[in-house]
# Entry
Amino acid sequence: MAAQKVVLVTGGMGGLGETISTKMADAGYKVVVTYSPGNTKHAEWVADMKKRGYDIMAVPCDVADYDSCTKAVAEVQAKAGAVDVLVNNAGITRDTTFKKMDKVNWDAVIRTNLDSLFNMTKQVADGMVERGWGRILNISSVNGSKGAFGQTNYSAAKAGVHGFTKALALEVAKKGVTVNTISPGYIGTKMVTAIPKEVLDTKILPQIPVGRLGKPEEVAGLVIYLASEEAAFLTGANIAINGGQHMQ
Ligand code: NDP
# Structure
């Protein structure tokens, strides 16, 4: 029997990350998640998962900080084994118009959503290449492709995600390692349900031809496919999963 593959999901306790993690566990992966060092509910989350039948390892990691990522991935490798699939999922928004955007909110979003790709991928890419197999999945956003009012920081970071994907995909293509971007539209996680209902109903839902928010399970299904053997010929792609909201 083939060894159980290890998947590392950054921000794996978040809205999308949790569903990606449980669905990957259901698909037979050994799942490890990262949480922010400031997250006081991590032990509760792990215990909750245990009750649901999931044995998920969790390590603290500030994805915006290189040294924190080095330490976290070393712990993962020592306790769970080499990382076969990396899902760069952790992300934040700090929305405001460019006129009001300050350097703090610009830097926070770029560091967490874009620098994190370097910080995390650097820890695992060489090992994947040496072993001749790996999957790197970078979660971007529809707003990285189409732009969004009040999101110069987020749109810039999320557009940068796909530039990273394409360049790295070229470098590791011959080594059995694929690198892809997933660009979700509006998915019903707390990042989106925090938007006032009136704004959701009048501004957001009318933009989505499918007529509803996406489900985290739908994004997790795509992650599982991209991580699979069958997806070995698919690399450097930016897959939109947005209910038809934006067609490239
Ligand atoms: P959540 O806010 O629910 O989760 C975000 C996760 O990121 C949390 O688990 C959080 O960890 C983690 N995180 C934030 N900052 C850091 C940090 N510095 N270091 C480590 N972890 C951090 O958001 P979603 O699940 O909705 O979003 C997941 C990804 O999907 C993001 O990249 C987002 O941009 C993207 N996306 C989401 C869409 C949506 O509609 N929901 C649409 C398009 C893209 P902790 O809780 O421990 O702080």
